[in-house]
Design goal:
Blueprint: H1 26-29, H2 35-55, H3 67-80, H4 82-114, H5 116-129, H6 138-145, H7 150-173, H8 177-185, H9 190-224, H10 233-242, H11 246-274
Amino acid sequence: MPKLRAETHQPVSVADAPELVLVQPEAERRRGLPRPLRRAIGPVLLVALWHVLSVTGVLPPTVLAGPATVLSSAASLWATGELQAAILASLGRAASGLAIGGTIGISLAVISGLFRLGEDLVDSTMQMLRTVPNIALIPLFIIWFGIGEAPKVALIALATAFPLYLNVYAGIRNVDQTLVEAARTLGLSRPAMIRHVILPGALPNALVGLRYSLGVAWLALVFGEQVNATAGVGYLMNNAREFFQTDVIVVCLVVYALLGLIVDFIVRLLERLLLAWRPAFSGA
C-alpha cells in the first residue's frame, strides 16, 4: 500500500504574491470627450452654419433671422414676461392632455393585455381609431367643445393615448412565458403575478410609449394652439406670422424643441431609475 506523503506548505510572502491588474473595459479605454460634449457638437455646428449663412447674406432676415437677432428677441420677450406666460400656458395644456390620454391609453392597454375578453372588446376598436388622423378631428372637437381650452386638451389627449396603448399592450403580451409559468409554479396568486412579473416586464415598453407620447404631445400642441388660442407659444407664433417676424417664430420653435428635450431627458432618468435591474446594450 503506498505511503501517504505529507506536503508542507511554505508561507507566501506579500512580495511573492501575484500583482492584481485592474482590467478596464474597452469602451472606457476608447472614450475621449465626455458624452454631453459629444452630443452638443451637432447642435453647435448647426448654429454656427446658420450664423455664417446669416452674416454672409445667404439667408436674408426676411427669410430667416440670424441667431443674434433670435437671441435678442428671446431676451425681449423674456424681459416683458410674455415668453414665460406662453411657456406655462403650453405646458399646462400638454400636461393636462397627456394625463387624460395617458390614463385612458394605459387603462385600456392593461385591460386588453391581461384579459382575452378585454382584447376582444377593446383592441379592434383601438386599432381602428388610431388610423384616423387626429388633425381631421379638430372641426368635430370645435363643434363638441367650443373654441376654448377643451378642444386643445382633447386633441393632445387623443394623440397621446394611442402610443401608450400600443406599447403597454405589446409589453404585457411580450412578457416571457417562462417567467409566468415559474410564478405559477411558485404559487403566486394572479394579482401578485401581475404586480411582480407582468407589469415589471412591460415597464420598458411603457417607458418607450411615454417617450413617444411626449413627442406626439408637442406636435398636437402646435396644431391645437392654432385654434383660437389667446395664450401659449402657438399664440406667439401666430402673431409673429401675421407681422412676418421670423425671429419670434424661430424663438417659438426653439422653445418647443427645448421643452421636448427636457421632458425626454426626464423620461431617460426614469428609465435609469426604474430599469436599473435590467442590463441593456449601451452602444459600442
